[in-house]
């Protein structure tokens, strides 16, 4: 990845928009990022890292904390970064979460984080990869660069104070980084695939064993031997149960047949008893049957006389109806005669009614002749009243308009009186706005000063703790040094005694060569072993390393304290008397100014409103005067119309009688007269029509009465003839009287029912006697069976049958279960053998590939160890150059303790001591040189391998201050060689020699209003 341009807006200490054009630095530049402490040098690296991943290089601040406090509210904090990957260019924009001034109105709203990623093709066309989501942008960057944020920090940026992390990473962490850089995921996939296959086979084997155990448990067996033993035992028991079941089934069948025969015989005895009961019942019904036969015979005789009797009844009914009709018509004829007499009396009054009708019509015609004059009078009355109302309304409107004009004039004078004061108040708006801005800036400076003061107190506390720890470590180092020197001295002193103890008589001394040893050396103290002496030296070295690190930490804290104090001093210069300020006083002053500003703003708004109102009042006053003139003219016109109509009304009232002046009353009277005349006309016509109808009804009633009298005489004659004929035939019949005849009368349905009942009775008697004779002959030699005893016997046999069936089913089911279990076990054993054979191969491969055997090195870590050797070879060349041939980086090949992953840890070979030791023992400057060499070597090797990630950019933040003059020159020479090899290298440093030897610079200029970027080119 190669940076092209970086744009920062209100980011970190940069309060405005700052642009860095990396292309202007050259093709493969080595450049210095220079500036005073706190100016924002590291912020440039933070901006690049934030643009790519949404996090800073040190991961100590979130994106939301990177907004510049001195930035204008109108500026939105954002970072734009353009970079090149291969032949393609990319542009990413990130905006962190931040408060943003509202577009309308006062106050702030929360700006949500967003990101846009664009790919720019070679032809200049743009392809939007991510529109807004920050998580999607980060994922795309990780896919494009092949690095996550932690890996980016370790291989492309050496952040301030974190050089040792690249050296001290364990095998697991280094494996994660290297696998991304060298794209060795295929080996990890092989490991995982083998591991998954092995685990799958192992799970299958375990599942097969569990299934086998489950099969045995399901059959309630403990082992295969128990299965075989139970099968052998159950075979004869099952044969015996089958034979017993067959015998019991036969006995049950026999007793069932016996019970069926007994039930059939018992049913026949019961049927014979029921037939005898029925015979007795039929004997009891014989009397009733005889009565029914007598009733049927009498009914048939009465049937012969019934037509004559019905003729008598018919003539009697006709006589009764004719008599009732004659009486009814006689009453009707009398009523018609009465109505005719009344109608004649009414007809005599018709001349008087006709004269009254004509008189009413004449009066109505006279009244109707007055209607036109009264209608004109009514219209004049309405017009006069309307004119009066219009005059009153016009007079009222005129008064209201005058009142409105007076009030408008008062309001106008009041508004004009407020204008001078409002103008004076609104003129303070700009002054107050500037004062508020200054107060907010002072509050920001004071907040920074307070944070600095808190940080100073914290650093003082840490300095005290560091000083105390330094004293403890110094004492501990002195003790370790004295102990190591003492052991070394005792070891040297004891060598002569050890040599003397090994001499034999006649053997030459290895020191002097003498064959005689008259006085052998002796040691009064215990001579320490080599292991004890080396352990003491190692303890001394560890104590020295801890002491050195503690002193380095103490110096860094002192420098940090000086930096923070300098920053607070600069803040004090920007805001004199800052130490006497309080947060409450600043907030109170700001609140007071904001209140005054709000009042001035309100005054400005009120002034504009009053000026607009005065203009509107003048326009309204002109309109009201015009309206008043129009209302006066309207009143004069209405007054003239009123006078003319009133004169006409007075003349017309004099020509009409006073009692007929009311038009509505006159119209009502005319309508009433006409209605009365119409009613009289209808009454006369009705009387004449009624008289005609009454005459006709009277004649009709007389004729109907005559006809009814004749019909009544004929009906009486017919009745007497029919009655004589019936009495003659009754005397010759078998009935003694009329009542006996009527009692014997039955309907045809009743006669049919009686005949059917008699026939059924006779048939029942015949059938019952035949059935009794048949059953008596059949049961002559039989006795009634004992059903209860036979049923009890059947129950006992069925109980025995169920017991035999249960025993057979239990044994048979168990035999089937055992046979199925044996077959399942054989099938599972065959499958288990296949799985165990597979696991013997795949499991071994998985253990080897995943580093579970031997030296605990996995397949991917083995491949990466080879690649790491290449990286260390390149890194050692640069480290030897910078350390003047003293140090060389090596890969630790010893196995780690326990189950910890190993194979990728680092060691350093010290040419001065000819020993190999941990990289943790390197000093701060040595660690920086080693980390720098490691980063450069890693960059070389990654790009040399096909498929690797291209690392053609490196940023180094500080670290050079820990080098001596010679090491610094060697480090600069190494960076220049790296530039010649086609790399971009950016260095952040305060070291003066760096500024003198690196011509291209990005200078950060610090000021009270925020830092700015200047590009310095040779």
TrEMBL record:
Residues 5-263 form the Rad50/SbcC-type AAA domain. Keywords: ATP-binding, Coiled coil, DNA recombination, DNA replication, Endonuclease, Exonuclease, Hydrolase, Nuclease, Nucleotide-binding. Residues 238-295, 540-634, 663-778 form a coiled coil. Transmembrane segments: none annotated. It comes from the Bacteria. GO terms for molecular function: ATP binding; ATP hydrolysis activity; endonuclease activity; exonuclease activity. SUPFAM superfamilies: P-loop containing nucleoside triphosphate hydrolases. The keyword Amino-acid biosynthesis does not apply. InterPro entries: P-loop_NTPase (IPR027417), Rad50/SbcC_AAA (IPR038729). SbcCD cleaves DNA hairpin structures. These structures can inhibit DNA replication and are intermediates in certain DNA recombination reactions. The complex acts as a 3'->5' double strand exonuclease that can open hairpins. It also has a 5' single-strand endonuclease activity. PANTHER family: ABC TRANSPORTER ABCH.3. Heterodimer of SbcC and SbcD. This is Nuclease SbcCD subunit C. It comes from Shewanella colwelliana.
